Amino acid sequence: VIRPEPCGVCGSRIRFGKTAIKCCQCQLLLHTKCQEQCPSLCTPRPHHHAWPREGVLADFAPSTPPLVPTLVVQCVTEVETRGLTETGLYRVPGTEQLVREWKRKLLRAGGALPALSSVTDIHVVCGVLKDFLRGLKEPLVTFSLHSAFLRAADIPDDAARDTALRHVVSKLPPANRDTLAFLMLHLLRVSHSPDCKMDVLNLSRVFGPTLVGHSSANPTPLAIMEDTPRQCKVVAHLLSLPPNFWRGFVGTEQENLVPM
């Protein structure tokens, strides 16, 4: 090391003259002793040095499938590593200033992310993930498919509803579909943790507005009022689909990147 830089795993500075390890793909730099704790996911650096401040999900996705942004994978990995014993995961807010600061830091890093293990409060990591998804130009459930998702969730017959939801999920842009699948598998794990006290209903209330949103960027007050309960219903029914359906999009390899 010639210029002292922070380790991408533990966050401590690697001092001048010390030996370090650098990934030739994503340029992640770390202490030799931190190699075992290195994040499993590695994506090549984007051509630009930083991600845009806003954009659609595909603007943040890697170039090879599964098309899940590194920021999403790293936040989920951190939450599942040390957050599944926290009560109110995703419901309890993190400190707003820290959430904004870390989101800005991760976007500026452009895919070669600083270590989230140095964030003491896991609710801040949850806040970064939610804030990233909320800040997209359109939600994961795209504007054009919004009404199709709402209609599918309204079908009273369970089997017919599941078939309709599977069909409309498959019509999402690949990055949106893969990221939705990755998040559904994560939220199912959260719902199965007794310590979190966040069942499917609680999670659907938190993530309905974030993942489903509205049919346009500027909804009317009436649309906001009408959409809110239906957004939650969509997420609850998506979480009722079998995990193997979602694994079909992200693959077993991607599944294994996140600790069980």
Automatic annotation (TrEMBL):
GO terms for molecular function: GTPase activator activity; metal ion binding. Pfam families: RhoGAP. CDD domains: C1_MgcRacGAP, RhoGAP_MgcRacGAP. Residues 55-246 form the Rho-GAP domain. Keywords: Metal-binding, Zinc. GO terms for biological process: mitotic cytokinesis; mitotic spindle midzone assembly; Rho protein signal transduction. GO terms for cellular component: centralspindlin complex; cleavage furrow; midbody; nucleus; spindle midzone. It comes from the Eukaryota. Residues 1-42 form the Phorbol-ester/DAG-type domain. This is RGAP1 protein. The gene is Racgap1_1.
